[in-house]
Structure prediction request, 223 residues.
Amino acid sequence: DAMVIQNPRYQVTQFGKPVTLSCSQTLNHNVMYWYQQKSSQAPKLLFHYYDKDFNNEADTPDNFQSRRPNTSFCFLDIRSPGLGDAAMYLCATSRGGRYEQYFGPGTRLTVT
Amino acid sequence: DQQVKQNSPSLSVQEGRISILNCDYTNSMFDYFLWYKKYPAEGPTFLISISSIKDKNEDGRFTVFLNKSAKHLSLHIVPSQPGDSAVYFCCQTGANSKLTFGKGITLSVRP
Prediction:
């Protein structure tokens, strides 16, 4: 089945220790998104790639970076995680021009 | 400032009855609305959508109604089933294809 895969599902990191979350997809979609969802809040878009073009949201902290080495993979790097970065991180994909996005199961990040 | 508002955090209905999930929005520039359903430990999955040129879209047990003048949409599930118990997100998008989510509403369908 075509799908969006996120690894790991649960990640624990220490305050200030860089961490990378990964996302892969078998849907061959050209757009990939990263969302942050904190408890009881709406998912919030951090950035997205349209093909190789990176689009950062204006209020995404500089602490968050992303890489997309190829169509299938996208990474979220948090350079110096703070306690406030503990959240669920959702990866999504879409075919350019279509509104529906397809989500992975998410990675729950804990910062100790 | 929330652009998509789901003011009720939870809803409980009896199996077989209708579930009505409400959503309000503030920005009329974005013209497409989607509902996503999320089970615990899974990502959101697309459920149904509606374009602003319509006022109703139906897919099986699920119907979405759009009232543009009131900037309000609602998702009707009838009849409700226990497997419908999940968190439902109302989303808005437009030409930029970016989704703006509401906070979600937790639906519980009692057997």
Notes: The mean pLDDT of chain A is 94. The interface with chain B takes residues 4, 6, 31, 33, 40-45, 48, 90, 92, 94, 96-106 of chain A (CB under 8 Å).
